[in-house]
Amino acid sequence: MKFTTYFTMNEEEAAMYASEKLGYLFGDEFHLTCKEIGDGNLNYIFRIMDEVSGRSIIIKQSGPVARISDEFKLSPDRNRIEYEILKLEEELAPGLVPIVYAYDPIMNCTVMDDLSDHQIMRKALMDFKVFPKFAQDITDFMVNTLLLTSDVVLEHKHKKDLVKNFINPELCEITEDLVYTEPFSDYKNRNDVFELNKEWVDEHIYHSHALRLETAKLKFEFMNHAQALVHGDLHTGSIFVKEDSTKVIDPEFAFFGPIGYDVGNVIANLIFAWVHSDAHQQFDHMQWLEDTLIETVDLFIFKFNLAWDHNVSESTAKTPGFKEYYLATVLRDTTGVTGLELCRRIIGLAHVKDITSLSGNVRVRAERICLSGAIDFIVKRDSYYCGEDFLVSMKKAMSKFAREDYE
Ligand code: SR1
Ligand code: MG
User: Is residue 2 part of a domain?
Assistant: First the structure.
């Protein structure tokens, strides 16, 4: 087997692939075994273990269709994008992404560090764990990968070359449909609304003209604002954590889009963890999440300001007042995207376990809290200036749905 023609591998074939192509990563003698460990919506993740050295690596292979549904036919070029972005992100935000070793454009796979000493953040938060360095790390990651790939810092022709290289139409289309369009109209009939919330969603979401209008504006912002190289899917399932380490994975949705897309995704997914902890009445964990949410927004603003002053190279961007204007638009987009992500994970096709692990009226209440907060984030996105503003909205949303009424 020479792996000269593309096919989707099984465990045995992935082990053979590693023996044939990646032996140099293991030393003179090796005995490789393989397990497929992917639980995401799109790709196959093979963990290759060498029983001689104890070393392990990951091979991530893209198939021609998504795992979640073969309705999504996707270019395997997403694997190249992921490989190239992980290399760039390691330069911009060292230590915050896995190291990549190889990319194979025939088999459409990328080889990278095995992070099995870390845990997927969503799962860890659902087990009520806390990560004291998270807000510091994720804001370093976002400020460095986002501001430093924008026109504020990069030479414009270089930036436009990057825009060309990271054009990602098929994965952007998924986001345009699943995040910006379907949750507010269900025109493709793919939404998956929890039975007990169907009427509520119909009344408060599908029948809201204000929401339809504001999400249309946000969608065109996403499609037309090539502001910086965004990760494009920065939820807690794309983040590995352990107590003293954070690693951002899975940047296959990356493209040049609005900075707020990444920041809003992080905030929304902290909110999912928060309602999950609330549903389990884990009040200490909720408090940690509240502090982390506030710290994430406020540190992002603080570091963005510092990084701007330190790195701005564009002459007009140095005009007094421009930084404040620019940051205000980033916060406005962040707030809108927080609302979009909250809606689409509850109404749309792709859910999150923080919510789906709940049942009955407890889930009904958790969903309504998220959706009610989301409506404010989308419609009033101009009036959020700091972390506390986000928390105030979510607490207001929670106070509308008394726990006793949903038992
Ligand atoms: C068809 S892909 C569905 C979702 O999974 C990915 O992780 C992205 O979040 C996408 O929207
Ligand atoms: Mg992913």
Answer: no
